[in-house]
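Title: Prediction job returns without error message
Component: structure pipeline
Severity: low
Priority: P3
Assignee: unassigned

Description:
Job completed but the reporter wants confirmation the result is attached to the right record. Sequence as submitted:
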Amino acid sequence: MGILEKFFLWILQTSLTTSIGILILMLILKVFNNHIGVRIKHGLWILVIIRLLVPTIPEMNINLFSTFYEKYENVIQIQNQKDELKGEEELPIVVNKNNNVNHNMNTEINEKEEIQNAEKQKLISVIFKIFSYLWIIGAVILSSIFLLSIFNFKRRVKYLKKDNYSEIQNLMNSCVNRINVRKNIPVFIHNTFKSPCILGIIKPKIYIPEHVLRIKDLNQLSHIFLHELMHYKRKDLFYNSIGVIALSIHWFNPLVWIAINKIKLYREYACDASVLEILGEEEKVKYGMTLINFSKKFSHKNKYSQLAISFENSNQIRGRIKMIKNFKNGSYKISVKAALGVALATSLMFTNNIIVQGAEVNNVVSTTSNNNSILSSKDRDKFLIDSPKKVYDDIEKVEKVWGLKFKIPDFMPGYNPRVSCFQLIKLSDNENALNIFLKNSDASKDEIAFQIFEKDPVESLKKIESSYKSIRARIEGEKEEMNLEGINGLSVTLKSTTPSIMTDEYIIPERKDVHKYFAWQNEGIWYSIEYNSIFNDKEILNLSEDNIEKIAKSIKYPEEIKNVNYSVEREVSTEIGVMSIYDKEDLEKAKKLLGFNPKLPLTINEDVKINDSGVGISGDSDIENNKINYELNSFYSNKNGSITFTAQKNSKVYDNIAENGYFIRENTEDNKPKKIKAEKLNIDNKEVFKYEETDYTPTVEYIWKEDGIYYSVFFFNGTENSYDIAEKFVKSKPID
């Protein structure tokens, strides 16, 4: 995303946020209209303008919209990361649901749908860029009009001289003293405006048309001077200027135009009220008559500048006269109810994190929940990498992240049952589920899956199952009552069909799966156990009703478990990840394993964002002799392919390139060692080597050494701007 688009996105978010504040303020002023003084009303509208210009304000817990900026970036990013490299065959029967850091999931990708989705996102990005240019053009045009107005006026009044009428000057001095203004504000005679006005923030000047001098009633003249001086004292000149700036920036928002007009109206009301506080109620009739007399002269269309503080149109003057008629000393006071309304309007206006719940790219419908299991936006912000499927090996960590107190089985059929992993799955923005995979000592037996969720069993289980399926898969669900001894529940059947797909080399046939679950509620939370699974007419799991009943009756809180081992022991292998990184706590744990603080850039540009990251055992480890080295592998989305970023303490490839200018690749397509030459680059004053390979799949790698740590960036399937992306990886810093 370019700088212009980012800036426009912030402007758009601010404008939408303030629009809600404007609507709420209009409603509050309508409800409490007779209880709030005009000066308070004017002050509230001034807050609207300030809100339009404030870049960042403290977040509050009143979330009416979701973060618009993040929504847009999620839409324009092209999520083209493949779960498996092209050409890899799908296993037709055995499905491994255990997701680890190396992406060992057997899911399918529909290439045609990916291309269509990428084109759709590209179109959205182009449209947004066009709107960004339209916005800046409109802002420049409107700003130019205002600046031209200033220039033309200054040109006309450049050689004006101050009024030398002693009677007028004496009257002006009297008004200055009466209103307690210390600054000397000169009066100029000029017919650019048909009504009196005051201009200038630093050096204010009052301009009056020549015919005003013919007014013999000094009271009327004093009313005019007092009104214009009060504009200066109330700093209306400054607020008028920031209103012009806000209008130039948010010109596309009709509610901002309404707000500006409201400010003009209440500015005059408030100024009149302030003048009447000085004159007293006994002079309000005379002051009103002055306004009426002037309105007769100025009711036709006149030259008018947005930059001037001057009399308004006839409709607004009628409103001012009505306000003057009803004026009473002390009208600035506010009732308790109105004060609460003002406080509400102010708090809503300065809420920075307004959330617009829009249609997600994956068309998942958001739902709400009344319990504490849903992560708040503040909690979600704690994630460095908010993966839709988080894999944990610690039940206490799962409870902490989810925020839900749940139960787990204390019985599993088979000898020495234990857990292989915990998967916390994001079903939607505010709905999560936990999938626990348990296995026993008999390796021939399939894992048993136990689920925990909070909403409708059929829909929740469909979402859980779809998280393991290709986007092409169609899942149908049905339910019927299923009662075990002492437990009333449901039998949920999911039927999944994955259409056949033709590649350049072979055809993957259609696959049909059937999964059956027993689901029941316990203390308001839903639990389910998968008791039967069929893949392409082959049954791979079938629990007896007796075992289902024993599992369901055995659920307890984690601290009460005695018979099932819920500690995860991972196999020591370079093919299996040791731990994934999602939050800062995970990162600190990873640092201890790695022995260093790694770079971990979360976003490179609008197309390249991190998907997963985790610690694994590096290939130079001597597992047999228990000499284990660790490395950090991070995986990024990219529209042209996929990117892997690695950090480790050792790299024979780098050492060989640094010494010889090349390294020897042992594993090649023809099983013959191959010399890979590298190009030497200088990026950010660091010696970086680049080499390319075409075996298996086209790859480009950049590798360098920094502070004793070896870093490398792999680009799979080719990337046109690999150098620019690699440069940002090189320049990135570790997370504090």
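Comment from assignee: result matches the submitted record. The two ends are 25 Å apart (CA to CA).
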